[in-house]
Amino acid sequence: MSLEADWFLRAHPEITTIEALLPDCNGVMRGKWVPRHKLAKIFDGELKLPKTALSLDIWGRDVEQLVFASGDADGICRPVEGSLLPTPWAAGGQHGQVMLSMFDADGSAYMGDPRHVLKKVLSRYQEAGWRPVVAAELEFSLVRWDDTVPLHTCPSPVGGSPVGGNTYGVDVLNHHQSMMEDLRLACEVQDLPFDGVVKESAASQYEINMQHVDNPVLAAKHILMMKRLIKGVAAKHELIASFMPKPFENEAGNGMHVHCSVLDESGANIFDDGTEKGSPLLHNAIGGCLLNMADSIAILAPSFNSYRRFQSGCHAPTFPSWGYENRTVAVRVPAGSHTARRLEHRVPGADANPYLLFAAVLAAMLDGIEQNLSPGNPITGDGYSKEEAKLPQYMPDAVRLFSESDFIRNNLGEELQRIYTLTKHQELDEFRKRISLLEYQSFLEKL
Fold first, then answer.
1. Binning pLDDT at 50, 70 and 90, where does residue 252 land?
2. Which of 52, 94, 183, 388 has the greatest CB tally within 10 Å of its CB?
3. Does residue 437 form part of some domain?
C-alpha cells in the first residue's frame, strides 16, 4: 500500500467508502464507490474503467461509434496526487474521495484524458523555461427545483420576483450564512484555495474566487473539486448549486473567467515590461487567444445551453476583442501592479472542463507568442456594441470548427479532437429531436 493511502486510512478510521472519481470530457465525475479496504488496489493500479467513460455524453450514455471502434477496451485508472481527501458534506462523514487519471495498458498516458492533454500543452512551456500562473472566477446559481423550472433562492419583494441581483450585497450572503460557513469549512478540510465569495450580478448568482496557482494541472483539479464541494454542501442544505451557464432567461449567465500570466526561470513575469501597456509577449499571447478563439469555442462553451449566454445585455463577449481594464471585451488586461500583469479570458462558461479550458487557452497564448501575432488595437468603451465578426452563436457551428481545426489537432491531439467531436454530435442529435414548449406555443394552434 502507498504511504499516502496508508496514512489516510490511519488518520480517518471513520471513513468506510472511497469515491473513485474520473472527470470525463464534460467535466462530469464518473467512476465508482469502493470499500476502504480496496483503496490499496487503486493505488496499485488495479482499478480499470473503459476508456469510453471519458467520452460519455452529458446524460452518461455511450457514444456507440467509439465503443464499437475500440471494442470498449479498458484503461488503467491511477490516483491523482493529493486528491485523496474526506468529503465532509457526505452523510455521516463516512466517505472519502480520490480523483483518477486514465492510462493505456502499457502505462503511457491516454490522450483522451483531458488531464493528460493539459500536461502535454504545459510541456511546451517547460521546454521554453516558462511556468504559467492561472486563476479562475467560478460563478454559480443557488436555486431550488419545482419539477419544471428552477426557482430563485435570493430574497424577493413581497408578491414578486427578484429585481436585479443585488450585486456585492452582503445581506444576500447573510441569507445563506449557514451554507456559506459550511462551504468555507469544507474548503479547509479539502485544502482548496478558497479566496472569498461574492454576490454576483444576476439574482441567486454567486462567485467563488480561486487563488493564483503556478501549476495549471493543480488549478484544474482544484476547480473540479471546488465545483463538487459547492454542489455537495448546497445539497446538504436542500439547495441546488448549478453551474449551468444560462439557468434563467433575461439574466446574466454563469461564466468562468480565467486569469493567466507566465513566469520565467527566475520567477519574473514575462508579461511585465514595467509599463501599464505590458510586454510585447503579452500582446502576442492576446493575439493567439483572439486568433484561435472561434476554433476553441466548443471547449469554452461546451454545452447546448452555453450559447444562451452570448446575447446582448447578458455580460458575455460575442466576438474576439481585447482591451485594458474593460469588462466588455473577450480578453481583458486588468489594472494593477506591473509585476502581476496578466490577461483575463472572459468567454468561458462555468460548464467548461477546466483541464481542457486551460489547455486551449494556454495553447492559444503560446501560438500567439511563437507566431509573433499582434492583437490589433484595444477596444475602448462598450465592446458589446461593436459590429465585428462574431464568435459562433450556435453549438453546431462551434463543433464543426472544432472538428476541422488544425490548431486543436496540433495542440490538443487527434484523439481528444475525435472523441470530443463525436460526443458533442450525439448531444446535438438529442436536442434536435426534442420539441420545446415555445414551439408548441408558437405553432400548435396557429399553423
1. confident
2. 183
3. no
What is the total count of domains within the chain?
Answer: 2
CA 376, distance to chain mean position in Å, is: 28
**8 A C-beta contact, residue 211 and residue 135:** yes
Q: Which residues constitute the domain of residue 309?
A: 121-428
* 281 three-state secondary structure: helix
Whether residue 193 is contained in a domain is answered as yes
Pairing of β 256-263 and β 131-145: antiparallel
Query: CA-to-CA distance for 132 and 134, rounded, in angstroms?
Result: 6
94: number of Cβ within 10 Å? 14
With respect to residue 82, please indicate whether it lies within any of the assigned structural domains.
yes
Q: Are residues 8 and 147 in the same domain?
A: no
Average pLDDT rounded to a whole number, residues 399-414? 98
- List, for residues 407-431, the tens digit of each pLDDT value: 999 999 999 999 999 999 999 999 9
Contact present, 317 and 383 (Cβ < 8 Å): yes
Indicate the residue type of 95.
H
CATH of the domain at 356: 3.30.590.10
pLDDT exceeds 90 at position 383: no
pLDDT of residue 313: 67
Residue where the block lists cell 493567466: 260
171 inside domain: yes
Query: DSSP assignment of 76-116, as one string?
Result: EEEEPTT--EE-TTSGGG-EEEEEEEEE-TTSPBPTTSHHH
Q: Are residues 78 and 7 in the same domain?
A: yes
- Is the same domain home to 74 and 147? no
What is the residue-averaged pLDDT of the chain?
A: 92
* Rounded-to-integer distance, Cα 253 and Cα 275, Å: 34
Region 395-410: mean pLDDT is: 98
Q: Are strands 322-324 and 331-333 parallel, antiparallel or unpaired?
A: parallel
Percent of the chain with pLDDT over 90: 78
Examine the domain organization and report whether 261 and 358 are in the same domain: yes
CA separation for the pair 199, 406 (Å, rounded) = 40
**Each residue's pLDDT tens digit, 297-317:** 999 999 999 999 988 766 788
